[in-house]
């Protein structure tokens, strides 16, 4: 079974990325691996806009989302919540045995900087979690405004998830003063799932040194000690590291500014199509994220029927809503390697199928 994925992760993986993964195995303590690891670092740092190291974690994003909590929270973490992934982070923090506070916004609303200031002013917190692009609702929160507030509280270590925004728009880690920034392979990097990226500031590593039960697999100090040798703490998914090397080269060849512009253009193309069929974005337009769109299913289209037809006749699939928004919204990804042509193909298929269903 093979069809094109326009769901917001996993997304389409190109033939040449798959081919890069078939390169021969090397020992993870060999010079060959060190060369591979070190060839990727500068590109990743440019993409995150950071001079901090970018560690490679063989896990999905949740591994490093949980790991970050375990490494830096001593007192209490404030979880900014406005959708399925950010809501779940609170639960994950609690399951790690940490004190955690909820700063809840309605799904589809961005995180409000002033509310963050009010909550951090209590002095109860030494860490904060923020999801830049909440994939479940297609909502982009104003990261630089939020971080401006967070920087007023030097005790607070910031943990920012850029899983569905990374390389679709600037994330500016150092300029924003983000301590920990993380992302995953199967979203805008257009790789198979299984690898996560994690960039950690010296400040956050210093905090980790004071925390006793960091565990091993996601221990920041292990990551750093191995990074200094061009390695990872344990055997990484080497095939995925080859894929990452390939994608970093592709992204650098395209140029980050061009890549951002392409994501904006394709994102706008899908919005224009949806508008023409009478749908509006689930979040407010100006808070819509760039790697995908989440639309309100105001016409009550049978999304299961849509996907059935898309799959069987056009070999592609969109997303019929996540969690409590299932059936009430639909999401279309334009992340990764998509082009005007591949998005036009989807839009033509959608026009046919929506037309037949009377929407
Ligand atoms: C997909 C996603 C995750 C979870 O990623 P996994 O790879 O399933 O662990 C976390 N945060 C955001 C914003 C996501 O889009």
Summarize the structure in words.
The protein is of the alpha/beta class. It folds into 2 domains: 4-10 and 256-356, Aspartate Aminotransferase, domain 1; 15-252, Aspartate Aminotransferase, domain 2 (3-Layer(aba) Sandwich), CATH 3.40.640. Helices cover 42% and strands 14% of the residues. A 7-stranded mixed sheet has the order 2-10-9-8-5-3-4, sandwiched between helices. α7 (173-176) links the parallel β8 and β9. α2 packs across α10 (238-254), α5 packs parallel to α6 and α12 (303-314) packs across α13 (340-356). The model has no long low-confidence stretch (mean pLDDT 97). The structure holds pyridoxal-5'-phosphate (PLP). Pyridoxal-5'-phosphate (PLP) is lined by residues 9, 60-62, 85, 131, 135, 161, 163-164, 184, 187, 193.
Reconstruct the topology from this structure.
Layout: E1 4-5, H1 15-20, H2 31-48, E2 54-57, H3 61-72, E3 77-81, H4 84-95, E4 100-104, H5 113-120, E5 127-131, E6 133-134, E7 139-140, H6 143-150, E8 157-161, H7 173-176, E9 180-184, E10 196-200, H8 202-209, H9 220-227, H10 238-254, H11 256-276, E11 292-296, H12 303-314, E12 316-317, E13 329-333, H13 340-356
Parallel strand pairs: 1-12, 3-4, 3-5, 5-8, 8-9
Antiparallel strand pairs: 2-10, 6-7, 9-10, 11-13
Helix pairs in contact: 2-10, 5-6, 12-13
Bound molecules: pyridoxal-5'-phosphate.
């Amino acid at each position: 079974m093979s069809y094109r994925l326009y769901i917001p992760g996993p997304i389409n993986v190109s033939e040449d990325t798959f081919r890069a993964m078939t390169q021969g195995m090397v020992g993870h303590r060999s010079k060959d691996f060190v060369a591979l690891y070190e060839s990727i670092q500068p590109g990743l740092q440019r993409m995150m806009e950071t001079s901090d190291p970018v560690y490679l974690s063989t896990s999905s994003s949740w591994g490093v989302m949980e790991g970050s909590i375990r490494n830096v929270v001593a007192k209490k973490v404030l979880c900014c919540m406005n959708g399925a992934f950010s809501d779940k982070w609170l639960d994950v923090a609690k399951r790690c045995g940490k004190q955690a506070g909820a700063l809840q916004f309605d799904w589809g609303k961005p995180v409000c900087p002033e509310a963050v200031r009010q909550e951090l002013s209590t002095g109860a917190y030494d860490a904060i979690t923020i999801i830049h692009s909440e994939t479940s609702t297609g909502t982009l929160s104003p990261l630089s405004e939020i971080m401006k507030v967070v920087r007023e509280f030097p005790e607070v270590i910031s943990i920012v998830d850029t899983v569905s925004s990374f390389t679709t728009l600037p994330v500016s880690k150092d300029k924003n003063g983000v301590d920990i920034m993380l992302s995953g392979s199967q979203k805008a990097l257009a790789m198979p799932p299984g690898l996560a990226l994690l960039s950690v500031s010296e400040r956050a590593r210093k905090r980790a040194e004071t925390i006793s039960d960091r565990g091993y697999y996601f221990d920041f100090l292990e990551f750093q000690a191995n990074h200094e040798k061009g390695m990872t703490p344990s055997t990484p998914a080497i095939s995925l590291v080859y894929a990452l090397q390939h994608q970093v080269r592709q992204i650098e060849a395209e140029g980050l500014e061009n890549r951002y512009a392409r994501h904006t253009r394709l994102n706008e193309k899908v919005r224009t199509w949806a508008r023409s069929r009478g749908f509006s974005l689930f979040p407010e337009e100006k808070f819509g994220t760039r790697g995908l769109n989440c639309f309100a299913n105001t016409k009550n289209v049978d999304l299961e029927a849509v996907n059935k037809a898309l799959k069987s006749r056009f070999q592609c699939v969109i997303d019929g809503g996540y969690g409590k928004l299932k059936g009430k919204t639909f999401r279309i990804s334009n992340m990764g390697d998509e082009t005007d042509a591949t998005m036009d193909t989807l839009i033509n298929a959608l026009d046919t199928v929506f037309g037949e269903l009377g929407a």
